[in-house]
Amino acid sequence: MWEEKLKIYDQLVAKCNRFERKGKTMPYTSANGYMFSLFNKAGEIGIRFSKEVQEKYIKEFDSTLYKSYNAVMKGYVLIPEKMLEDLDRLSQYLDESYDYVMSLEPK
Question: pTM of the predicted model, to two decimals?
Answer without folding.
Answer: 0.97
